[in-house]
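#structure-requests
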Amino acid sequence: MNRVNGKVAVITGAARGQGRSHAVHLADEGADIIALDICADIDSNEYPLGSAADLDETRELVEKSGRRVITAQVDVRDRAHLKTVLDEAVAELGGLDVVVANAAICPLGNHIPAQGFIDAFDVDFVGVVNTVHVALPHLKAGGSVIVTGSIAGLLPTTGLNGGNLQGPGGAGYGLAKKMVKEYTKALALTLGPQSIRVNAVHPTNVDTDMLHNEPMYKTFRPDLQNPSRADAELSFPFLQAMPIPYVDPADISHAVVYLASAESRYVTGQQLFVDAGAGLKMGL
């Protein structure tokens, strides 16, 4: 307990899934939380995104830890709005120590128009850059930047089930996650002299809404016209070396808490795979 006591952390994509889990775990360890989410759907992304009600639930869960929390509906593609919201929240909470750039979408399907590429890339890479860059003026020595990557996004375009992350949206997602890897390494070198750390966490399948939706099921079971969750779960273990279909959001949050804490004070520029051996299996 209290591994990040007294720190302030901003988390994007915090309404549900990994982002909510990170917010709750960091709060349980003593951090005050700035929880941001778009709380709206994006047309090219066919599964529903988190809602305002979901973000309210995240707030309630953080408050149960006895920590302060500020929530706001923000699109990470809108740098000006993101900056205004973050500046105001940091002023209210008295500082910023941890940045968790987690917001992402994965609009899959060969029927998705080119806008799917734009939306996936803009949320998954430009949104990361926007989040980190508006936060940097607030960070001091000891600060930690943590970016959510993706094992699937790092695979070659022919790497997933002999196919790919389907369509323009999948291509945008994959490019964004590959660029996240290089971005975090370059930024870690840049910020090293200031003792600000930058790392990426690359999960395999995670038990969230990004995994559990019809387009993703079709990616894992292209042999079926309308695969169910049960159908897809037969194929999910293909990705990992360990015999599991997916990891829990908490498994990623444990890595995030470690990277946010002083326990990792000399860990920077790393690409941490929380993947049940998927990266090894795929030759990453």
